[in-house]
């Protein structure tokens, strides 16, 4: 009885515009980003043929995961704008493609973060920061898998968003923290190497001023 009341409340509070609009924007952005990924991948495999086999396998895995993720986004867009046209109540159900897209996107981010964590360790030769980033990356991946499992048992889109809002927020915070720590560590190590190597920074302001004066 309580479940029926919850479904009725969700149906009354459901606004299709809040679902179709973000899905269309997400599909458009996914198409643009996947096109950029395809161009970058072609340039990489065409120019860097001598790279290590493991790196090529890593990039190939990212391409396949992103291709699968893009197919799931297109399938979701088709379901919400074509298959459910004329019956907005069907949009309340969580599409299967979205459930599949969750672990696919999480796996892509985990592979990319693992690569940069490895590069950070190669640059610093210090295990503390890479271990911290690794813990954050693994923790975020575990949260992603938990989110995917809970999505399979949730049939109501509004209920899923309400119940998993905290989990999604923590997931984004952990991902962002891992990226910021990795970026800061890499930038710090590169700057330290630059100072140790004795490379001097060149002040370009006189040259820029001279060119601006000449053009004016």
Helices, strands, pairings?
Layout: H1 2-13, H2 17-47, H3 53-83, H4 96-124, H5 128-152, H6 157-163, H7 165-197, H8 205-215
In short:
By secondary structure, the chain is mostly helical.
Keywords:
216 residues, mainly alpha, globular, 0% strand, single chain, 8 helices
Order of helices and strands: HHHHHHHH
As a percent range, the share of strand residues is: under 5%
Mean pLDDT: 82
Multimeric organization: single chain
Helix percent band: over 70%
Count of DSSP strands: 0
Question: Major sheet: size, sense and barrel closure?
Answer: none
User: In angstroms, what is the radius of gyration?
Assistant: 23 Å
Structural class: mainly alpha
Distance between the termini: 79 Å
Total DSSP helices: 8
Architecture overview:
The protein has 216 residues and is an all-alpha fold. It contains 8 helices and no strands. The mean pLDDT is 82. The protein is globular. α2 (17-47) packs antiparallel against α3 and α4 packs parallel to α7 (165-197).
